[in-house]
Design brief:
Layout (H helix, E strand, L loop, with lengths): L6 E3 L2 E2 L2 E2 L12 H12 L1 H8 L18 E6 L4 E5 L11 E3 L8 H17 L21 H4 L9 H10 L2 H4 L6 H19 L4 H7 L3
Parallel strand pairs: 4-5
Antiparallel strand pairs: 1-6, 2-3, 5-6
Helix pairs in contact: 1-3, 2-3, 2-5, 5-7
Length: 211
């Protein structure tokens, strides 16, 4: 199943939680939902920073414990954003981003997640309106026709880098990420992926050596 690095998120202002609303979906405020909307909108690009190794994508495959579906839900381990059902009190109310792994640089990954969430709040990206859920069921049990409606995470490091190159403006706000840093990151990661793709894997010997 691989090892993930689940990141729990909740925000406070003047000591008061701003992600809590008793009347909201799963006890979340509209600000929290917009934060989720920003993360889900930018989830493919986030993978280039939160899942920055070729090995990362051996975990992000359908049917295992890691999430591959870009959506949100309560107590649903198959969704990229999971809202813990046990966190019910106002100061506990939070959600977790479940796609990342510990091959990341946490300074870059956490900053990127925060920038995606802030972008969602500033632009009022409602995840329900954007078709990201909530999906309060096991996504792997959906009929194939319904599964096709749910967008998935990149399936390789190269695909994640493509997503980042197509969607990085949210990271530049406030000069948090210099554009040159992202260009260097993409270049180095492309070289890593290229090196791995040209290196024979032990499994290939088992499959093809005696042909």
């Amino acid at each position: 199943a691989g090892n993930g690095m689940h990141v729990h998120m909740h925000l406070f202002k003047n000591g008061a939680p701003i992600f809590y609303d008793e009347a909201g979906y799963s006890g979340l405020s509209q600000q929290a939902l917009c934060f989720i909307g920003g993360i889900l909108k930018h989830a493919p690009a986030l993978c280039a920073l939160a899942n920055p190794s070729t090995n990362s994508y051996k975990r992000l495959v359908p049917g295992y414990e890691a999430p591959v579906s870009i959506c949100f839900a309560t107590a649903n381990r198959s969704a990229v954003i999971r809202i813990p059902d046990y966190a019910k009190l106002p100061h506990q109310k939070r959600f977790e981003y479940r796609a990342g792994d510990a091959t990341c640089n946490p300074y870059l990954a956490y900053s990127a997640m925060l920038m995606a969430g802030i972008d969602g709040m500033l632009n009022r990206i409602d995840p329900a309106e954007q078709g990201y859920g909530p999906y309060d069921l096991n996504l792997y049990d959906l009929p194939e026709s319904e599964k096709k409606k749910v967008k998935g995470l990149p399936t390789s490091l190269d695909a994640a880098l493509d997503a980042l190159e197509a969607d990085y403006a949210f990271l530049l706000a406030g000069n948090v990420f210099p554009k040159r840093l992202l260009e260097i990151w993409v270049d180095r990661k492309r070289k890593e992926a290229g090196k791995v793709s040209l290196t024979p894997h032990p499994a290939e010997f088992g499959l093809y050596y005696d042909l």
